[in-house]
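During the second half of the funding period, the structural biology subgroup turned its attention to how the target accommodates small molecules. The most pressing case was 2-acetamido-2-deoxy-beta-D-glucopyranose, which had performed well in the primary screen but for which no bound structure existed. We therefore specified the complex as follows and requested a full 3D prediction, including the ligand pose.
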Amino acid sequence: MLLPILATAAVAAFATVATALPTSANHVVHEKRSGSSSWSPMQGVKPDGRITLPVRIGLTESNLHRGDDILMEVSDPASDKYGKHLAAEEVMRYPSPAHTADLTLEQIVELFAPQPKTIDVVRNWLVSSGIESSRISLSRGRNWLNVNASIAEAEALLKTEYKIYEHSTGQKHIACEEYSVPQEIQEHIDLIMPTIHFDTKIVGDPERRKLKRTFNPGDSNNNGFLPKKGPTILGPGADPDLAPLPFALTTCNSQITPDCLRALYNFTNGTLAKSSYAVVEYTPQAYLQSDLNLFYSNLARQIPAGTAPTFDSIDGGVDQTTTQSFDDNGESDLDLQYAIALVYPQTVTLYQTGDTVEGASFNNFLDALDSSYYTSDATYPDPNSGGYKKQDCGRYTATSVISTSYGSNEADLSAAYEVRQCNEYMKLGMAGTTILYSSGDNGVAGNGAECCTKAKCAGGTYNSGKTGTFNPSFPGTCPYVTSVGATQIVSGASVTAPEEACETVIYSGGGFSNVFAMPSYQSSAVKSYFTNHKPSYTATQYNNSETVRGYPDVSANGANYAVAVDGSISLVYGTSASSPTFGSVITLINEQRVNAGKSAVGFINPTLYANPSILNDITSGGNQGCGTAGFTAVSGWDPVTGLGTPNYGKMLPVFMALP
Ligand SMILES: *[C@@H]1O[C@H](CO)[C@@H](O)[C@H](O)[C@H]1NC(C)=O
Ligand SMILES: *[C@@H]1O[C@H](CO)[C@@H](O)[C@H](O)[C@H]1NC(C)=O
Ligand SMILES: *[C@@H]1O[C@H](CO)[C@@H](O)[C@H](O)[C@H]1NC(C)=O
Ligand SMILES: *[C@@H]1O[C@H](CO)[C@@H](O)[C@H](O)[C@H]1NC(C)=O
């Protein structure tokens, strides 16, 4: 055992009311909205006080610092516990004496469950505020207290006022500007929803159809992460002014193909099919099998027509074909075509998340992998007509590598919300999963190229223009994920020449967090960046304290991908392409490790930062945005391309030499 497991008195604790009630409701503001240009309160309209809100109180979890220690212990290449992941899927699939799990998933739940006192104190506050205990329930992971409360009750409890907010797209949502809790119990509460977060929806309201959840990563209206389309080069709609080029290694500077990526990143076709790899898609984003087939027949001829991902539906996720356009199919077609082609014959899993009515959030996805996480977003069961009537908590075991090409801005959600979600990535890392997120396509600006007004984006408000303070993306800034930026082949250069930061159509997301502290694995790389290449910007542009998380960690090509979308082959741009490519390289390394009786690599950042020479350092180009040239790619780590692009031939021996 790595750790003694805490005694579990929590079920009993829930049933007893032993702690003194906080009598004086000495409320203090617990969370306050940072402001967003795209959502504004409707003037003169107040929601009916009888509407029911699914109030969820996120209780402060225990032992999070120990979680960080355990993650580093199994991920630090210098640790003799490297690769001894807890309850890793590979452990279950390919049992080997070399990597037995130290903790079961149940034990991980126990480790982080709130202290019994925390559950008592918060529950007693609810009861003393007039909510009968029969209405209060505790989640399976004992980390959320749930109660259905009317808006009037919630307003009294949280000393707040709910309003109807309208999005620029016409969507409506119930939220508040800030909320308060009694000072005596504040330390026991992480966050309460639905409040200031634009990520939840209400239940039981006759008008609910108009009050949809807010940030759906799959919605092309509010996702600046979806890839951008360039010219169509083959098939219906092909640009007649473009002479068709052969798909060859000599044309990689104008068309990226799977063969180009193998040449760029020094790897060959997979052979073993012994690992597991997933991409995540958010409905209504969907792939078309006919597009996959078109791609195989032109660009991956070893793959038979009909080869499909393993379809894991989360919360009603369907491969919808009702609406078809680049905005519906571009992301999924891109991610799947490249992931499948690069790791074939390894099968790729598709975590298709959210029904066609509501979509889903990152939390719905995380719930499906860990029933103890249990957020929050109350999207499912979906009461709407045609909506998914269940909630998929703990339905799937995480694959060894998971790539997501969707994201939001740190400033869109509260710090408490992001920290809680980030800690869930920490738990997945403990269990042996590599989590990759694309870093965003707007350089130092956020989705929609938006920037902020104040030095601290997370505490300020958005600027209506495209200038101001840099706007970092989330989850890329979570220190427990690997954030992937974008590069391109230099114009006219060969596939063997060094690449530069992507400056075609999109700019690699990168910069410094306003929420997360700098993780130790990164500190010497970032320190050396500031020592040798200190940017000229001030605290007006970004948090220049040199104590916060810098991103991305790594990068991979993100320009000119030849992708089959809606029956033609077009060129596509984005860190959306970079993330599945990087994930494919890690998957091929996992195959070799698993074949040698070792674990999957799990959380890779500590190994990459300790061995920067296994990546191709990118030293030119920048990530402009917010009316500036952004940061510049330099030798060593930089906030444009991270440590650089993968070099499989150099990465493999390093990872194979680890326990
Ligand atoms: C709240 O109401 C929903 C819908 O009726 C129900 O499914 C859920 O169990 C209720 N939650 C609690 C904590 O009572
Ligand atoms: C991978 O397979 C494809 C299709 O069979 C082939 O064209 C390509 O040359 C192979 N690449 C390598 C590096 O083996
Ligand atoms: C930068 O981050 C540090 C560490 O979180 C924090 O103390 C400081 O207030 C931040 N600076 C600004 C200008 O927001
Ligand atoms: C590719 O990988 C091999 C090891 O397989 C290594 O010797 C070689 O230097 C790498 N090529 C480049 C261009 O880095």
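Two results from this model are relevant to the next phase. The first helix runs from residue 10 to 15. Confidence is low (pLDDT under 50) at residues 1-24, 88-101, 200-214.
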